[in-house]
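Dear colleague,

Thank you for sharing your sequence with our group. We've completed the structure prediction you requested, and as agreed, I am returning the results in plain text so they can be pasted directly into your records. Please verify that the sequence below matches your submission; if there's any discrepancy, let me know and we will rerun it promptly.
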Amino acid sequence: MKIAITGCTGLIGTELTKYFKSQGDHVVEIIRVKKEDGKRSTVYWNPDQGVVETDKLEGCDVLIHLAGENISSRRWDDKQKERILMSRTRGTTVLCHALSRLKQPPKVLLSASAIGYYGNHPASIILNEQSTKSNDFLAKVISEWESATQSAKEAGIRVVHMRFGIVLSEKGGALAKMLLPFRLGMGGRIGDGKQIMSWIALEEIPLIVQFLIKQESITGPVNIVSPYSVSNQEFTSMLGKVLHRPTILPLPAFVLRVLFGEMADSLLIKGSKVIPRKLQESGYSFAYPDLHNAFTRIFGNKKK
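Please find the predicted structure tokens below.
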């Protein structure tokens, strides 16, 4: 296949690029810097200026859209919120308008999204792709982000919104940030530890993406999460076990709120139990379904 990817240098994009190249697919990297490189296929785009080298996307079988401002890179003031929103809606709109003008558009657009669409809920509430949208900041961003693909849908392109949970990898993301204090024996639960973490192993994502490409009947939102969510307390305990370190230093919620403001509740203190119903009903078999599976893969630790 010929697969084009935005956000190809990020955590997920790097993993997908490596995976599809290993499968013998032709990967086209959509990047913000003009490059002539005989070893790489690149397409220049600048969503802020509405620019895409559209002709180079002709004949792509798949487009995977991952680009967007890192939501946890800095405190959420009004300017940062605007950057987060515009980096997703503007980029997606520009890209989808470009795809709608192609003579040979991709058969499928796999566009990144997030389970933040559902908001935060107690563990007793189980959420799936049919669950209603929350009314907080992240839900607003995600709703507008997904709506920005409308021109691609109108052009007859199958659109899948990949609603990612917490991506687990020692290469980046939330887990990578936790590792140093945990390895120093200074890890512990966040707040009361009861908040649910709906997660996915990074190594699982290419397998799911490949499945979604092949399953032509799947459209709309798809929750990219493990079938087995865990509480933050369970997550903390398991991480301590695989690293052979104590986990006795809880991080109080009020400290996080002082440090990170609104972002603390959305990303750290609260959570929700999300299940991958569409994947399960479509017959996808998870390679790393439970947390011990995932940590064993990540850390190469065979002991419980």
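Summary note from our side: The radius of gyration is 19 Å.

Kind regards,
the structure core
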